[in-house]
Amino acid sequence: MHEVIEFLTQAGLWMAAIAGAVLAYELLRASVLRRVRLRLERSVSQYLARHRVRLDRFKFTHKHYIREALLADPALNEFMVEQSRETGTPVTELSLRAEEYIEEIVPYFNLVSYYKVGYGVAQPLMRLLYDVEFSRSNLAAAEDAEPDGAATVYVMNHRSNADYVLFAVSMSRQVALSYAVGEWARVWPLETLFKSFGSYFVRRGEKDPLYHRTLQRYVQLVTAGGLTQGIFLEGGLSRDGRFRTPKVGLLDSLLGVTEDGGDVRFVPVGLNFDRVLEDRNLLKEAAGDLAEPDAVDKVRSLAWLLFTVPRAAAVRLVALFSSAWTLARRRFTGFGVAAVHAGPPISIREFFGDELDSLRDMDRAGRRVALERFAAELMTRIGHEVPVTAVPLAAGALERAGAYTPEGTTEIDVVREIAALLVELRAARAPILLGPGLADLKAERSALEDEASGSGRPLLDLEADMISGEEAEAIWSVARSMLGRRDALVLAGVRVTVRPSHAALVRYYAGSLQGHGVLPA
Predict the structure, then answer these.
(1) Under DSSP, is residue 270 helix (H, G, I), strand (E, B) or coil?
(2) Mean pLDDT across the stretch 329-354?
(3) Which of 225-229, 303-307, 363-367, 505-509 bottoms out in mean pLDDT, i.e. has the lowest?
(4) The pairing of beta strand 150-156 with beta strand 229-232
(5) In angstroms, what CA-CA distances link 270 with 119, 378, 513?
(6) Is the distance from CB of 178 to CB of 199 less than 8 angstroms?
(7) 48, 254, 277, 344: most buried by Cβ count inside 10 Å?
(8) Strands (E) located in 306-445
(9) Is the pLDDT assigned to residue 50 strictly greater than 70?
């Protein structure tokens, strides 16, 4: 008996020691995590204060509050009652379905996640893959023009899944954005990340009217709360380089914000790339050779991206810390320029004017016609803001010079067409963003223009022609290298021909210039 008591005593002491060790570990772990969290939050706060980043208060509204506000929303409940009468489905079942939709749609914004995880990965990612080109003054002007009482929505063309990353990086010192994200990102870990960034998911092609009503009320709730959003009106990536027909579903939801005297202003934003990572798959989809990507395709694309970024980083580091710059650049030279440019905003009230009250009273079909007109105007404005980069510019010149014909054209003719396009694009006030490689020529042109302006005379044609000629040659050199690496061109002496198997690829990049009116429709 004595031995049993001694054994139990020893066992109790061991259990107490283990419990004490576990408790000490948990306390230490909690203390470390708390210190790390506080340090991260302090770092983010300093960044926000240093750059005077605007944060929407509504971002910090707890997800539970938004969920309860939607479930108690009179308009949504009235809609469920009507649906129950029409379909015979019990209201309780519809309410449970609405809860599922709310759980799917509503995000949870986390400041540290957005700026330390999201921006911390996105910024070096974009800098590794591209030369990112944008004007802080241009984006700041669009942001600072916000009128009182109006929510801001940035509307963009959609060329790549990298659009989300590119624009967020460009706006990181202006405002934290919430995106309307398509179902492509509803795979782990992207879904969790995007929700922690404050973005909400939108199903495309969903037939359930309750889903659309729930999404509509959510969009109206957060927009009325002043949430700054980014949406892609086309509803999907361009498959041929040209704009897709815009969707008006989210515009219809945003129209409801004006019922109580509110307003929504739309800032048109153009995005463009010298190389779109998904271009070949997009062209295959356009030709019907490839189905819309499923979950496996999304995971495969994510795995490819996770392989490409470390590879790019390794090569860039080798190039930086060794004398073998030429060798390293030959192995990986990046994907050229990724550019952003914003235009002057337009609001719903400004566009519709006195028509607005009657428009809200129409049924959905009646409103659709007016909203399609508004969407077309937004796409026109976006088209004017799409940046002109080297590869799209050269692709347009190849088309105008006749390089798609079997006999092709000469490189001199291509350079001449690039120079002519530059003149036309500048006359149309198109944003021309060619990257740091051509910064010297841009600075030279600006200096001559300033000198001519200061002397009260126009820039001499000879000076302009010389600069445009040098620019055109430099642009063609960059584009020829990038297109040549993709085997898109046949170069024979001074002649150049677009390889027939790559004609759709080159036209894809030329298509991004459609909004500037310099190429045939």
Answers:
(1) strand
(2) 84
(3) 303-307
(4) parallel
(5) 21, 11, 11
(6) yes
(7) 254
(8) 337-342, 346-347, 409-410
(9) no
What average pLDDT does this structure show over 357-381? 91
Task: Provide the token pair at 73.
Answer: 């929303």
Residue type, 224: A
Provide the edge-to-edge strand list for the sheet that holds 495-498: 409-410, 495-498, 489-492
Tell me the CA end-to-end span of the chain in Å, nearest whole number.
98
What tokens were used for 328? Answer: 């390293």
Dihedral class, residue 303 (left if φ above 0, else alpha if ψ from -120 to 50, else beta): alpha
Query: 124 falls in which pLDDT band (50, 70, 90)?
Result: confident
Q: Report the half-sphere exposure of 206 (CA within 13 A, side-chain side).
A: 16
Instruction: State which H helix or E strand residue 14 sits in.
Output: helix 2-51
DSSP codes of every residue in 65-83: HHHHHHHT-HHHHHHHHHH
What pLDDT, on a 0 to 100 scale, did the predictor assign at position 229? Answer: 93
Listed by start position, the domains of the chain span 1-51, 57-234+244-277+336-385, 390-516
Amino acid at position 264, single letter: V
252 close to 364: Cβ distance less than 8 angstroms: yes
Q: How far apart are CA 458 and CA 453, in angstroms?
A: 7
